[in-house]
Each structure stands twice: as C-alpha cells, then as structure tokens.
Amino acid sequence: MARKPKNIEGEKFGDVTALEMLDSRDSDGSIQWRCVCTCGRAFKMSGTRLRGGSVTHCGCKGKRIYAHRDLNSPSPPLSPSKRKSYDEPF
C-alpha cells in the first residue's frame, strides 16, 4: 500500500515556496510540486529534494554570485604552495 504524500503546500525551503502538488512524479517516483523562487521564477521540483535540503533556490543564486566577475580578467595568482615547480616531474 502506498504512503500518503506529505502535504508541504505553502512551506518555504530556503528561497523556494511549494505552491501545489502536481499529478506527476519524477524518475524516482517522488511527487512533483509547483514551486516559486523569491526571484519570481516558477518551476517544478520533487518533494523529496525540497524536504532533503538539496534545493533552496531555482538556480538564480549561482547566476548572481558570478554575475559580477569579469571573465576576461586574469585569474588571481596561485599561492607558492600550490604552484608546480618546473623541477618536479610531470
């Protein structure tokens, strides 16, 4: 007999709010939820991933973190302990 799915409607998981349970399931058989992020993006996600803490935003945070970086600028120099000496074998 199948378990009754946990109702997480209205619960917040980081920046994500679960809005409503969908009739679909993911590949693992977990119930899908219609969600909305604080950035305004709507998406669907499994309840298992939401409750487990592996999903706390729609992906917008990663975009915001790297948006300020200039990809054309050189990387910072390596610390002496991380530099490979030319005397070491390859």
C-alpha termini separation: 59 Å
Low-confidence stretches: none
- Helical residue percent band: 10-25%
Mean pLDDT: 79
What's the count of strands?
Answer: 4
The class by helix and strand makeup works out as alpha+beta
Q: What Rg do the Cα atoms give?
A: 21 Å
List the helices and strands and how they pair.
Elements: E1 12-13, E2 16-25, E3 31-37, E4 42-46, H1 47-52, H2 60-67
Antiparallel strand pairs: 1-2, 2-3, 3-4
What is this entry, summarized?
The protein is built from 2 helices and 4 strands; from the N terminus they run E-E-E-E-H-H. With 90 residues, it is of the alpha+beta class.
Description:
The chain is of the alpha+beta class and 90 residues long. It has 2 helices and 4 strands, in the order ββββαα. Strand 2 (16-25) and strand 3 (31-37) form a beta hairpin.
